[in-house]
What we know:
Four Helix Bundle (Hemerythrin (Met), subunit A), Rossmann fold, 6-stranded mixed β-sheet, Gyrase A, domain 2, single chain, 46% helix, alpha/beta, 16 helices
Amino acid sequence: xxxxxxxxxxSTAMGRSGIGIVRLSGPQALDIAxxxxxxxxxxxxxxxxxxxxxxxxxxxxxxxxxxxxxxxxAPRSYTGEDVVELSCHGSPVVLQxxxxxxxxxxxxIAKPGEFTLRAFLNGRLDLTQAEAVRDLIEAQTTYQAKxxxxxxxxxxxxxxxxxxxxxxxxxxxxxxxVEFADEDVHPEDVKTIAVQLDxxxxxxxxxxxxxxxxxxxxxxxxxxLVGRPNVGKSSIFNKLLKKERAIVTDIPGTTRDLLSDAxxxxxxxxxxxxxxxxxxxxxxxxxxxxxxxRTAIADADVVLVxxxxxxxxxxxxxxxxxxxxxxxxxxxxxxxxxPPQLTLEQLRATxxxxxxxxxxxxxxxxxxxxxxxxxxxxxxxxxxxxxxVILTNSRHHDLIVRAIEALQESRGALEEGYSEEVILxxxxxALRLLGEITGETTVEDILDQIFSTFCIGK
Length: 458
């Protein structure tokens, strides 16, 4: 990827909007903008100042749009290069025309993520911060955005730095013993290094453990609502979504196919799936829906088994409970507004070990508690209690795991009395792996893989 030329792209989402931005970055950015832009004030573009004027075709003089242009001089810009942002009216036709003019004047179309790649290569961001830019753009919940914003500020890099410093100090100490044969590592120093290694491994292990929750925050879960017909699955589905998404009637078997929608529960993306009522049926269409419900049970991360609390358990209820026995499940006893017929003893006898909760889809009683219970169930105590860094990126997790394994090998070699050269192998490998996380040690293929997932214009 050539980083010496000037790139241009539409940096706002395609579609009609009040404002759309064409961004330029590189050595010719200012020159290209000056050839297109005519400021109403007559004052040339100056750094860090928004100026109003017109964009005209430099050959024909045709008016393209009235715009606001902002110039950022290197290195005080997003990319670390000269950057110009042309804020136009958000018509796709206008934005495309402006983009084409920048290309005619010497820029080229930016590749996906190339603006952020240049920011990384120019030292404006490290690799974890660059990846956080993508995560922030793609965030679908406020909690996802909060986690990404913390990483964009460099919180993960700051947490790793003392670990890398401690590891570097240990390496220097051992390397000295290798270089100077008359300076063997003293037995007391071996104990000190062992303690330091254990501390570094423990700190990395704590970061690694946060990934179980971080993966939930990033990827979300699939939650299927299952039960026999007419127990209130679709009503609870609508209550969790806080909108009337599913058709609700008192006729059993209304839902014939899977119905899905997304909701955020305490910042965790949840993909809700409403299923057809599970029962024996001769209806061909309904039987297909029942089979799809069974598939949803198999694919779901969590299953909500809905029971009608105003009736005793039926044969169909028993069949649903048996089918979901091996799945991670919550029992939801609906219709708590009616006289109860489903007793606690029946629940304990048929769904032993599964947590349960009473709700009323009609009145909304217990729905907020259900949301809270679902979150507690899926996080299983994995949610951090403080503003600790949460590992959400699978690339970071893989590198952390490999670094821990390398350090454990060094710890074993130290314990068994191997030479400094052998002990250092794992420590050097761990330091290299941690450097890959922040981009201090990386290869072009990894950069291409990461930045290809970005949108064009970012």
